User: Fold this.
Amino acid sequence: MNGLRAVIVCLVIACAAVVSPTSAMAVTPVAAEAAKPSWSALPVPAAAPPVTVSDLAARGPGEAWATGYEHAADGLRPMLYRWDGTAWSRDTTFPGAGEPGWLGKVQFVGEEVWIFHNRAGTGEILRRSAAGWSAVPLPQTLWAYQDFTAVPGGAWVVGEDDTGLKVLHYDGSGWTTQATPDGVLYVVGINARTATDAWAWADTSTGSTVLRWDGTEWQDAKVPLPPNSNVHTILLEPSGRVTIGGSQYTDGVARTYLMTFNGRAWRTTYPPLGDTYTEAMVRGPDGALWLPVRSDRAFQSKYARVDGPRTTFSYGPEGTNAIDVKPRALARAGSSLLSFGTVEIYGSKPNLMSERLGG
Assistant:
């Protein structure tokens, strides 16, 4: 009888341990990990490989556009894809879709979509409204078109011609050429928050610098960039926050840095990203910075999430027979993230891929 009582007591203790709050808390991290959203593959209609992806922009979960170009036998051909919230499809209705050229940066301007288009060597801005496509030609032809940005009330194209760098500004009715501070040799890239608040990164005889347009003139923004560094991108947010991504070189070795401006001061950090190129960096729906990084798995993409001092990584889905998966651009699409890039399948040239986190 005493033996039976001991067995019953042991069973009661074991059951209490299973349902105790301490035990429940012990399994919570596992459940939370399982609940995290994961990357999923989105089919993309194939282009003529090899292909190059230029940019990706999303207005919300139901509209995104991806740009780039195909490497055809007779030269480059522009490439445009649209996401409708359910599937990717190719758009060939824009002016010059069947002509030589390429598509660059894509931006949402009010209710319209604006895209930079190199059309057989001549620059123009494609505009898509409810009435369809139209084009705004540039006032002159440049031999190099470096970057483009647009906001309501203003657009900029930066590049070069035989006389040197050019900053072309469109105010909605016409074009003007804007001067840059003395010593600027080359404008690498440009981004804008409003028509009177634009930022550019440039090369000078003494190194990289950041410029700012205040609605009247371009000035040195006095950003304390790390020594021996360059700038890959400048992320501007409606809150006023500014994030700069670039590389710093020490003894010929590059490491990625991030600089954040909170409206009062700059703060520089060096997350464990190696020499990652930060051009595709975006602010995700979770408030963290996201960017694609070089993957250590040939058959999977890899993404970094930088949230203050913490950097974590996630992988995309495994690609069948994939030997090189390269997401090239990211965009926030509502509560999810979209990526667009290329994948090389064994025995074929790189073609298009897209992935989504959440949604």
Q: What stands out?
A: The mean pLDDT is 91.
